[in-house]
Amino acid sequence: MRGVGxxxxxxxxxxxxxxxxxxxxxxxxGSGPPLLLLHGHPQTHLMWHAVAPGLAxxxxxVAPDLRGYGESSKPASTPDHEPYWKRAIARDQVELMRRLAxxxxxxxxx
Length: 110
Fold this sequence. Notes:
four-stranded mixed sheet; alpha+beta; 110 residues; single chain; globular
C-alpha cells in the first residue's frame, strides 16, 4: 500500500500549547524565519505533511490544529458563537507564535 509506514513530519516536535483561551495541538520544526501554516475546513494540520518538511529546511514551521479541530481543545460555545469567531482563532495564533517564535509575534503588532 502506498504511504504505509511513511513517517509524517519527520524531525518535527508534536506538542500542545495553552494560549489562555484554548489548547492547540501543534507540530513545529525546522530553522529560520518562522512560518505559520493554517489549515482550512474541514482539515487539520496534517494537510501540510507533504510540504512542511521542505519548508523546514529554510523556515521554522509552526502547524497547529485550530481550536475546534483535531486534537485541539473545543471551547464551549456561546449564543453569539464568539469562541469560534475568526478573531478568537486569530488571538490563538498570535499567542501560539508568541510562545514558539517570540520574534515573529512582535511583527504581527507592527
